[in-house]
Amino acid sequence: MDYSSEQADILIQALPYIQRYHGKTMVIKYGGNAMVDDDLKVSVLKDIVLLRFVGMNPILIHGGGPEISGMMKRVGKEPAFIGGLRVTDEETMEIVQMVLAGKTNKDIVSIINTHGGLAVGLSGKDANLIVAEKKLGGVDLGLVGEVKQINPEILETLAGEGYIPVISSVAIGLEGESLNINADHIAGAIAAQVGATKLIVLTDVKGIFDDKDDPSTLRSVLTVDDAQKMTRSGKIDKGMIPKVEACITALAGGVERAHIIDGRLPHALLMEIFTNTGIGTMIER
């Protein structure tokens, strides 16, 4: 088989998946160090443009933790985290909003549009997309919120007109204040609310491991019960906790499958959607 035939064969193998997911909504969470490499970022966003052109409706929720931490250090503030969530005072909230809703969001939109897509940048404050309340209980995290309500009408309008919504994780509080919400939690809540077929979390690890120091212990499939037990035992910790919580929220809301995959791997998104084996860890009911 020559090279051209191999390429054609790969396309034909993808056909059943294109048919299966045509017209379906995919919620993709993109964040962490997987966003740092510029060439890789372009590759990921081009893959999302491809999904739109083969008839799927991708919704992209992005983080930007490294960029926020970098800006905080530039102004003399030391980032602090508790349970994978950023401690957010008023000054930090201003930095979060500036970096996420301003620079990071618009950079992503620009790349998508440059490569033939039609992206629209949103924060949770636009059209009251994400209404939140201050997270209470335990340690005070400051202006950190938890999702109270998702109003998806703007997303449905944009998807119906062929646009790709790109959402930053700044929410509006009950009094109109800005609240910082973990982007994983937002992705899980939006996936459940819009009736997504899949939630895919692109991060900077290969998935969930029984032993995080032993790559051979990667779990390709987990049930919700398994994931909860691993969280309680400490096998799932730190920044992986909100990712798993997002998957559980999505599944509880009717999403068929939730995946945590390595966004540093070129075309990881396409391999997850268009191949039999997939990559990373899939969490299922």
Describe it.
It is a single chain. With 285 residues, the protein is of the alpha/beta class. The protein has a single domain (24-284), classed as 3-Layer(aba) Sandwich (Carbamate kinase). The protein is 42% helix and 24% strand. It has helices at 3-21, 38-53, 65-74, 90-114, 153-160, 183-194, 224-233, 240-252, 268-274, and strands at 25-30, 57-62, 81-82, 85-86, 119-123, 130-134, 145-150, 164-168, 170-173, 178-180, 198-203, 208-209, 218-219, 221-223, 257-262, 281-284. Strands 5-8-2-1-11-15-16-14 form an 8-stranded mixed beta sheet, with helices on both faces. The radius of gyration is 18 Å and the shape is globular. 43% of the residues are buried.
Q: Which key terms come to mind for this protein?
A:
four-stranded mixed sheet; alpha/beta; Carbamate kinase; single chain; 285 residues; 9 helices; eight-stranded mixed sheet
